[in-house]
Amino acid sequence: MAWIYLVFAGIFEVVWATFMKLSNGFTHLGWSIATLIGMIASFGLLSQATTKLPMSLAYPIWTGIGAVGTVIAGVVLFGDQLKPATWFFVALLFVGFIGIKLTTGGGE
User: Fold this and answer.
1) What are the structural domain ranges in the chain?
2) N or C: less crowded end of the chain, CB within 10 Å?
């Protein structure tokens, strides 16, 4: 169950980052509130995940899911343009957090 919490914590990190962009510097109340709700959900789920998983495993995977997901959200939702070299390094992030999972045994 800890892994499920961790994956959803990473997804909510993407959600709140996206909502923060939509809040336009916290000038739109609805998106600002949605950002805070997403943050609470993300941190709450991360907190639950770390009750069973070591912090040295959970935190980098959480940030990795958030980083890769936010890059993809930026491209898909906001038309961000990335160079091929940037995509290569995004792929390395993905490979990195998969590698962390595979080489640590991962708690639960």
Assistant:
1) 2-104
2) N
User: Rounded distance, CA 45 to CA 65, Å?
Assistant: 13
Residues 71 and 57: their CA atoms lie apart, in Å, by 22
pTM, entire model: 0.87
- Sign of the torsion formed by the C-alpha atoms of 28, 29, 33 and 34: negative
Which of the residues in the chain have pLDDT under 50? none
Token digits of residue 6:
């961790």
DSSP 8-class letter at 53: S
Q: Which letter, b or e, does each residue of 38-56 get, where b requires 16 or more Cβ atoms within 10 Å of its Cβ?
A: bbebbeebbebbbeebeee
pLDDT at 106: 53
